[in-house]
Amino acid sequence: MSIPSKYDARNVESKWYDYWMKHNYFHSKPDSREPYTIVIPPPNVTGVLHMGHMLNNTIQDVLIRRARLQGKNACWVPGTDHASIATEAKVVAKLKDQGVDKNDLTRDEFLKHAWDWTHEYGGVILDQLKKLGCSCDWERTKFTMDEDMSEAVIKVFVDLYNKGLIYRGYRMVNWDPEAKTTLSDEEVIYEEKQGNLYYLNYKIEGSDDTLTIATTRPETIFGDTAICINPNDERFTHLKGKKAIVPLCNRVIPIIEDDYVDVEFGTGCLKVTPAHDENDKMLGDKHNLEVVDIFNEDASLNSFGLHYEGKDRFVVRKEITKELEEKGFLIKTETHINKVGTSERTKAVIEPRLSDQWFLKMEELVKPAIKAVLETGDVKLFPKKFENTYRHWMENIRDWNISRQLYWGHQIPAYFYGDGKEDFVVAETIEDALELAKTKTSNSELQVSDLTQDQDALDTWFSSWLWPMSVFDGVRNPDNEEFKYYYPTNDLVTGPDILFFWVARMVIAGYEYTDERPFENVYLTGLVRDKQRRKMSKSLGNSPDALKLIEEFGADGVRVGLLLSSAAGNDLLFDEALCQQGKGFGNKVWSAFYLTTLWEVSQDIEQPNSSKIALEWYEAKFQKALIEIEDHFSKYRLSDALMSIYKLIFDDFCGWLLEIVKPAYGQPIDAVTYNKLISIFEENLKIMHPFMPFITEEIWQTMGERSPEEALIVAKWPEQKPVNEALITEFDFASQVVSGIRSVRKDKNIAFKDAITFSVINNEQIQPTFDEVIKKLGNLEEVAYVTEAVEGALTFRVKSNEYFIPMSGAIDVEAEINKLTEELNYTEGFLKSVQKKLSNERFVNNAPEQVVASEKKKEADALAKIETLKASLASLK
Question: Which stretch of 323-332, 561-570, 858-867 has the lowest confidence by average pLDDT?
């Protein structure tokens, strides 16, 4: 078989992925082996592969491939999330392009479009993960809207409702006016933005007096239902019990007193808008104020906004400011920095809004999840620093708003049968709901047609918090064989940005429904940023096309590039040069393999001592590296594990071992050395495989005929053996000696083909173990041990050992004297210029301290160099 001298990933990757799929290596079934389970953080069903996915899934694949090599029953469950808000927004946009308004469609008509969209785009990201080499159990692929997954979600909702943990309430919520749905507190991102503080005059009813209010939102005056003053503020004693008139709309509103008002902020008077501010709502409830909602669901003003009806809130802000100023109500405007909440999904500015919503009580549910992470350590976070973030969220948790005003998603299983807000029942099916409604109303005549299901859908996270259980049907059938075998799962790999959204909620659900942790370890990756530390995004144009990277550098190169810069929990500063480094590493290993294929192997040659000891040394070095690698894996320092492998193979195997054992040009290699070298090469491939699966399988299979049972993907992870530390230490010393010889040859232009003699004063009492290696790599005739310095020889030191290379015949003495003399003259001239500058008191006194220090260092370096050059010249004369 002809083996190419260069590795071409494009001709290899699809070949081996198809081979792995054909032989079903990724698929797992329960058996007697120890299970190792990972569930994928399900990406949005309509998403495409970006750098965050690349990093996250590369790490998962490294862990699953290593577990497979360790002989565990490795199961990596893939799948996608229906992503209510994001997907519905895309479907609405597509319909709009076709001239169709969502509001003109029934729920079923809209859902047909959503399913069409999902079927068209839903598998894209999973197919892209295959290009990366991800060895998921594709037969287990799940979707959060699969029938069995949906049944699990509905079952949990009904169960929690029956336990009294889910309730319906009229509350102030975060409203996304673009997606036209409520959001949980955790889905709102607060950003500091510069706005204005508008000072408005309100007239006092029945007098010519006025009071001044400072507000950041003048457009909300139409919703004012009171003015509030602090009862202890003597400035406003005269206003107690009076009423004010709202500008423009002329509504008469009471002036109330409450110590909630900060006398130091603004003017000390507060306009109260209960429909549009959570704190104002609490004040309104306390003082029985009217609630006036001035916004439509898209945050345009409704009829309460008078002549501004139908206009967007921000347009109104500009226009009403002008009108208020023209009519004498706006006294002044100041710039003001305040925190503005924006939707995580649509980036729209959030509008507080009163609405009937469904909530899940969290106070009791959260307790086992707090204990598991922060007390018992049953669930471990890597890095540990994220425990503080976890603690903050969990100890300050609020009830979870689980309803969304969307069609796409799991429809809330609440069925209304009357006119009142409480005229509903909750059940898994409409048939069950009918029976409950009959019992509740004592009306046996009720029919299915009398029931109307709640139009809202559940928050997407309400399905994904069940993910580790529901993918194994553990919610509907908790006693099934697969659930009992694979659950709890082992590792979860995800980003810290969803530590609360998803990770914490999965822990909560796990303890509520199984009384067990859903996973043991949570590896939190960093965010992928560019070299300027900017978060990668399409809008900034700094996010590379993942598939193009794979096309250019190969999947293995991209995987290595991502992981080389990716310490756990720290942001990854991505640079395509790292992918080039990964590709270069693969090429280096391929070249090493190709070199071994060029050698003729002889059974008749005795193994050289240099090869024998070198192979023993590398085995010791390998075993030591294996201990490091295992330690890094145990701490989820995958970047460090990869770097240990990289250095071992690049430096020790390719840089040293191959150089030592390779035969002289045109000569055969002895069979003992060759066979041992190939065995070592195979061990290298095993530890490389989780990180670089394609090139390692290609080399492994090219090395010899392998049956499917002998494929690298299912080979055996190297066994840990005792480490010969003495051999490693001795080689480290020997390698410095070789480097010294090579430096002398280079400096003195002594060709490597010219054999030289070599003497050493062995002050360190180093064993002669690696003398044969030193002789081969330095092309020495012999290594002689002496007790006195060799006159007229080139010399260098390693620790206290002195090494001598006789000059006779090795170098052109006259040319070397001329070269050293020229260098000495130049250095002495340079020293004079530096000393002249340092003797100038004006320079020394006025120049920056670091500049003077730099010149003094130049002086010291020049003096040292002159001494060395003079010594070298003396040895030549």
Answer: 561-570
pTM: 0.85
Q: Are 218 and 321 in contact (CB under 8 A)?
A: yes
Fold of 727-811: hypothetical protein PF0899 fold (3.30.2320)
What gap in Å lies between CA 439 and CA 16, rounded to an integer? 62
CA distance 632 to 681: 22
Tell me the pLDDT tens digit for each residue of 326-345: 999 999 999 988 889 998 87
pLDDT band at 819 (very low <50, low <70, confident <90, very high): confident
579 exposed, middle or buried (CB, 10 Å; 0-12, 13-18, 19+)?
A: buried
- Reported as a single tens digit per residue, the pLDDT across 162-198 is 999 999 998 888 999 988 889 877 788 888 888 999 9
Number of H helices, E strands in the chain: 27, 31
Tell me the Ramachandran region of residue 273: left when phi exceeds 0, alpha when psi lies from -120 to 50, beta otherwise. beta
Q: Looking at the chain, how many residues does it have? A: 877
Question: Stretch 605-614: mean pLDDT, rounded?
Answer: 97
105-118 average pLDDT score: 92
Under 8 Å between Cβ of 590 and 563: no
Confidence class of residue 571 from pLDDT cuts 50, 70 and 90?
confident
Residue with the two structure tokens 């029956």: 162
CA terminus-to-terminus distance, the chain: 60
Domain edges within the chain: 181-351, 546-723, 727-811, 814-876
Is domain 546-723 classified as CATH 3.40.50.300?
no
Query: Angle at Cα 77 formed by Cα 75 and Cα 83, nearest 5°?
Result: 165
Mean pLDDT of the chain: 92
Q: What angle do CA 735, 674, 701 make, to 5 degrees?
A: 110
Q: In 3D, which of 604, 614, 644 has the Cα closest to residue 727?
A: 614
Q: How far apart are CA 495 and CA 490, in angstroms?
A: 17
CATH number of 181-351: 3.90.740.10
Task: Supply the Cα-derived Rg of the chain in whole angstroms.
Answer: 37
Q: What is the CATH number of domain 814-876?
A: 1.10.287
Ranges 46-50, 110-114, 258-262, 762-766: which has the least confidence: 46-50
Instruction: For 583-630, list the strands marked E by DSSP.
Output: 601-602
Q: Do domains 181-351 and 546-723 have the same CATH topology?
A: no
Positive or negative: CA dihedral 114, 118, 121, 125: positive
pLDDT for the residue 812: 66
User: Are β-strands 519-524 and 380-382 bridged in parallel, bridged antiparallel, or unpaired?
Assistant: parallel
Element (H, E) at 578: helix 576-597
Q: Which positions ≥6 away from 499 have C-beta within 8 Å? A: 386, 389, 390, 393, 524
